[in-house]
Write a structure and sequence with these properties.
By secondary structure, the chain is α/β, with parallel strands linked by helices. Helices cover 45% and strands 20% of the residues. The protein folds into three domains: 55 residues, no CATH class; 108 residues, 3-Layer(aba) Sandwich (Rossmann fold), CATH 3.40.50.1000; 58 residues. The strands form three sheets. Strands 1-2-3-4-5 form a five-stranded antiparallel β-sheet. The protein has a three-stranded parallel β-sheet with strand order 8-9-10. A two-stranded parallel ribbon has the order 6-7. β9, α6 and β10 form a beta-alpha-beta unit. It is elongated.
């Protein structure tokens, strides 16, 4: 039988066996040793007695440190981690990457609550972006202002819920995506201001009786051509 977010229990040859986190064993009145090495552990109990543990830990992606450094360089003010891993493992990763904060031992609903708290703390005009790849990340990806999923190793649920998908799973591309979006945003603003500005000026001249057919053609076709040429600058994006 599965206990959501804690582990499983079964009878093996008449012996009750538990396999899961420390909370599962605590609910059954079984103590877990305090000297468990760092890492996420699956604790095993048989017949009401602690039998041992299976320990495993994630390894950092090759460009994880570079990704965090790049985000800080482009002005990202807060980089937090929401994870279901043990606090010791999460703290080690957060310190190694230089993260602003972290929350560990979170169930899927806890991750959503953690993101809600971060969004509530965001009193500025910036957006909250969440990057994830697991099934448990899908609700958080859909709740964030912008959700980014890993396309190669990410689960289908995470990819479906995300707004952006990184096909090569390189976390360093998150900073690149932010740079591209910023450049695109400013080019769009330039085109809108330029197009409306020219049209209003030509309308004013027309109302005063000074505008001819050539000014009207420029305000329509000419402005459109210039806006397209300006928009083509997005094709020449270069990483700096």
């Amino acid at each position: 039988m599965e206990t959501a977010g804690r582990g499983v229990s079964a009878n093996v040859n008449g012996v009750p066996v538990l396999a899961g986190n420390a909370k599962l064993l605590a609910d059954a009145g079984i103590a877990v040793p305090d000297d468990i090495p760092a890492g996420t552990a699956i604790h095993i109990a048989a017949g009401g007695r602690y039998a041992g543990s299976i320990r495993f830990s994630d390894t950092l992606k090759p460009h994880a440190k570079d990704a965090v450094a790049a985000l800080k360089q482009i002005g990202v003010l807060r980089i937090a981690m929401l994870t279901g891993d043990a606090k010791a493992a999460a703290g080690r990763v957060a310190a190694e990457l230089g993260l602003t904060s972290y929350r560990a031992e979170l169930l899927p609903q806890d991750k959503v609550a953690g993101l809600e708290a971060i969004i509530a703390e965001n009193t500025g005009t910036g957006s909250v972006v969440y990057v994830g790849d697991g099934i448990n990340d899908a609700p958080v990806l859909s709740r964030a202002d912008v959700g980014i999923a890993m396309g190669s190793l990410g689960s289908d649920a995470a990819i479906e819920a995300a707004d952006v998908v990184l096909m090569d799973d390189d976390p360093a591309k998150v900073a690149t995506a932010v740079k591209i979006s910023r450049k695109t945003y400013w080019i769009v603003r330039q085109n809108i201001i330029f197009a409306l500005g020219v049209k209003f000026i030509v309308l004013a001249f027309a109302a005063a009786g000074f505008a001819t057919m050539w000014e009207a053609v420029f305000a329509d076709v000419g402005v459109a051509v210039i806006a397209i040429l300006n928009a083509m600058r997005t094709l020449g994006f270069a990483e700096k």
